């Protein structure tokens, strides 16, 4: 019986989830704080963590990193409100298996847990990521279709990227890939590898953001037996495992200064020395790095070695955000729909016109990763042949009503001088406007439902508790102004 630890500072939520999981055949227990969760992880070694993103004593990201240091292969599923999706995507980069958004749906929770437990963890390799933002295998073809898991897209921007890949792949140049989190940078790195002369050699992907300062040297360079406390056996590092092939270092600017110094030697001399070792190991590998910030900017700010930047900057590729390649949104949506149909054994045909318009107008903060999760959730909740708007999260289905991205109505020029407001005042005004817009939508639903809160919640496609929480949030914020 698999052991699941629920971590949430809400006692009622813990009790509810523990009872639900126990009824479904799990050995479930709970912890109400990050510290209590760490004690439980050390003593009881659960098979999986169900972790609320916001805790009183530490953030979900902090707890996740501490758990990964204790048990690197333990799958962690993050629970988050939809307004925190951008933060949840960042936690995914730190090693979380997946995230689910509130309100929670029983079938969605069970499916995510089962998928996480069915995943085969890679031993002693918390930094090696087996999946990218799109799937588990790579495509070798141009255009929209590839294999069962990867597609590239057919937007003009992507066609230009494919030309760049064809140009640089046969060389041995180092490449920097820039793009937002979840935009598919690893897919591009794999394409470079598969179109190179190293295609039959290893491709190793490392998320540097998931490597703690203490473990980074061991993960990258390996260690000898007895090199430090806990080093019970000799271990090959990821750089050595990639020998002959390609290593992809995502979020490279997160590496500490000490690791950057060691990495510079690898780039210059193609040699490494394991932690605690006395002899050099020759390497023949290609290095592809990526980040969502400019390495030159990080170097100017003192967060990244300038000499290392110049070593990497032999060629660079820009991966556009999903919102900037709208021609690909429905292509990827259909692809994720097909994958989810196969996973769930469903036969959902596609999306209604309303859903397609919502998808095309929404700003996908989490890019492909967010789109994939939204489609998976929607297909799970779909009973008929077509995905309808009611299966989408509230913030997405009502995005156009809540959006502040539309250009303002032109106003006559003013001749008076306006005093600049503080950033804090502007942030407060923005938050107030956002809450007011959401509250007007809720108020309209209440009027339509004759102020029956259950019916209003149903109209908004949220549960009654979420409706109460949103109304309470508005009341508390305005009472504190």
Question: Which labels suit this protein?
Answer:
481 residues, alpha/beta, Rossmann fold, Helicase, Ruva Protein, domain 3, 5-stranded parallel beta sheet, 20 helices, 16 strands, 45% helix, 12% strand
Can you give a write-up of this model?
The protein contains 20 helices and 16 strands. The protein has 481 residues and is α/β, with parallel strands linked by helices. The chain folds into four domains: 3-118, Rossmann fold, CATH 3.40.50.2300; 156-318, Rossmann fold; 322-402, Helicase, Ruva Protein, domain 3 (Orthogonal Bundle); 423-479, Orthogonal Bundle (Arc Repressor Mutant, subunit A). The strands form five sheets. A five-stranded parallel β-sheet has the order 2-1-3-4-5, sandwiched between helices. Strands 7-10-13-6-14 form a five-stranded parallel β-sheet. Strands 8-9 form a two-stranded antiparallel sheet. The protein starts with a strand and ends with a helix. Residues 122-149 and 403-421 have low confidence and may be disordered.
CATH architecture of the largest domain: 3-Layer(aba) Sandwich
Oligomer: single chain
CATH superfamily of the largest domain: P-loop containing nucleotide triphosphate hydrolases
> What is the overall silhouette?
globular
- CATH class of the largest domain, named Alpha Beta
Helix content: 40-55%
Q: What is the count of structural domains?
A: 4
Query: What would the CATH topology of the largest domain be?
Result: Rossmann fold
Tell me the span between the first and last alpha carbons: 51 Å
Report the average pLDDT across residues: 79
What is the radius of gyration computed over CA atoms, rounded to a whole number of angstroms?
Answer: 24 Å
Question: How would a textbook summarize the main sheet?
Answer: 5 strands, parallel
Task: Label the structural class.
Answer: alpha/beta
Q: Reading side by side through the largest sheet, how are the strands ordered?
A: 2-1-3-4-5
Task: Count every beta strand, where a strand is a DSSP E run of 2 or more residues.
Answer: 16
The total count of helices amounts to 20
Proportion of residues in extended strands: 5-15%
Q: Indicate the low-confidence ranges by residue numbers.
A: 122-149, 403-421
């Amino acid at each position: 019986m698999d052991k699941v630890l629920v971590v949430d500072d809400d006692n009622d939520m813990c009790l509810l989830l523990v009872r639900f999981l126990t009824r479904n055949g799990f050995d479930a227990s709970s912890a109400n704080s990050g510290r209590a969760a760490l004690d439980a992880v050390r003593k009881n070694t659960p098979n999986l963590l169900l972790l609320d993103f916001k805790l009183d004593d530490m953030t979900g990201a902090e707890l996740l990193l501490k758990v990964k240091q204790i048990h690197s292969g333990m799958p962690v599923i993050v629970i988050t409100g939809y307004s925190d999706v951008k933060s949840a995507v960042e936690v995914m980069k730190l090693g979380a298996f997946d995230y689910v958004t509130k309100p929670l749906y029983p079938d969605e929770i069970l499916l995510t847990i089962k998928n996480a437990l069915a995943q085969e963890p890679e031993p002693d390799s918390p930094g090696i990521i087996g999946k990218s933002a799109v799937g588990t295998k790579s495509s070798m073809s141009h255009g929209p279709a590839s294999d069962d898991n990867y597609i590239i897209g057919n937007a003009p921007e992507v066609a230009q990227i494919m030309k760049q890949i064809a140009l640089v792949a046969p060389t041995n140049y180092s490449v920097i890939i820039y793009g937002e989190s979840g935009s598919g940078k690893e897919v591009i790195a794999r394409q470079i590898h598969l179109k190179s002369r190293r295609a039959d050699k290893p491709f190793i992907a490392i998320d540097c953001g998931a490597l703690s300062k203490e473990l980074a040297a061991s993960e990258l360079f390996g260690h000898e037996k007895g090199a430090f406390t806990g080093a019970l056996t000799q271990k090959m590092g990821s750089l050595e495992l990639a020998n002959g092939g390609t290593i992809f270092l995502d979020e490279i600017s997160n590496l500490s200064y000490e690791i950057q110094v060691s990495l510079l030697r690898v780039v210059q001399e193609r040699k490494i020395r394991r932690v605690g070792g006395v002899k050099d190991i020759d390497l023949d590998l290609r290095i592809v790095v990526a980040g969502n910030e400019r390495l030159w900017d990080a170097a100017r700010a003192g967060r990244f070695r300038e000499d290392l930047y110049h070593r990497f900057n032999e060629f660079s590729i820009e991966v556009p955000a999903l919102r900037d390649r709208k021609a690909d949104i429905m292509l990827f949506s259909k692809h994720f729909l097909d994958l989810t149909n196969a996973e769930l054994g469903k036969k959902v045909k596609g999306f209604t016109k309303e859903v397609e318009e919502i998808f095309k107008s929404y700003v996908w903060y989490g890019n492909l990763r967010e789109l994939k999760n939204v489609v998976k959730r929607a297909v799970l909740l779909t009973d008929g042949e077509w995905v309808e708007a009611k299966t989408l999260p509230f913030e997405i289905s009502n995005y156009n009503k809540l959006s502040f991205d539309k250009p303002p109505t032109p106003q006559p020029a003013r001749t008076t001088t306006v005093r600049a407001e503080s950033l804090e005042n502007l942030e407060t005004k923005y938050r107030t406007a956002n809450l007011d817009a959401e509250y007007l939508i809720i108020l309209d639903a209440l009027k339509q439902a004759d102020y029956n809160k259950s019916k209003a919640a149903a109209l908004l496609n949220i549960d009654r508790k979420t409706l109460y929480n949103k109304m309470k949030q508005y009341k508390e914020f305005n009472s504190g102004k």
